[in-house]
Structure formats: structure tokens, C-alpha cells
What we know:
Keywords: DNA-binding, Transcription, Transcription regulation. By secondary structure, this protein is mainly α. It has helices at residues 8-20, 25-36, 40-52, 73-85, 92-107, 109-123; strands spanning 56-61, 64-69.
Amino acid sequence: MPHLALGDLEQAVLDVLWREGALNPGQMHQVLGEERGISVNTVSSAMKRLFDKGLLEREKVSHAYEYRAAVSRAELQRQLIASIAERFSGEERAGLLAAFVDIAQADGEETLRRLEALVNARLKGGE
């Protein structure tokens, strides 16, 4: 599994690619870099880091690479949570599960109900 620690810029790049689709560094800079006051090179470096982590795919188009997300938002979330969960075993995981319930509770009753529905579906053998 790739090293998944994401900086703020890397997360923003992924958010844009999930929303907009494939972009080259110049296009990404127009969407993201100008408002942040950062250079095209900084944006390009962030995209390259995400590629190296296995989170982006790229294709050479003319003189530049065009990047697209290699994973969905849901898959990245699953990978991030799995990388945290593998650090805990046995009874230690109970605290991790309690943290998920706390997060759901803080988000409101509707989120708790969605979590309950997900758990019930898994217990019944569904996805």
C-alpha cells in the first residue's frame, strides 16, 4: 500500500481531479494554484508525488502529463482507515471502533442511522 499521508495541497489536487476529471499541471494551476499564490512547478510537484504514491495515473499528452485520479474518494478513505486500523490489534481496535461511533454521533442522528444501516447490511451479508 502506498504511503498515504496527504498534505493540504495534495488533498486539494485530488478533490479537483475527482470533480473535474483529468488535467495537466498548467490546468490544475489555473484551478487551484493561482488562488493559493503558488507556482505551476509547486502544483506539478504535488501531482508527481500523488502519482508516486499510486493515487494518480498519468498519460503524456503533447508536452505535458495529464493526470487523473487512480482511486475513488471512497477507495482512498478505505485505504486511509485500513492503514490506521492495521496499527491496532485485538482489544485496541475497540477504541478505534468507538472513535467511528463518536464521529458519527458528532455528525448527527442521521449519520448514526446510516452507520447502523451499513452495519446491519453487512451482518446480513450485503454490501
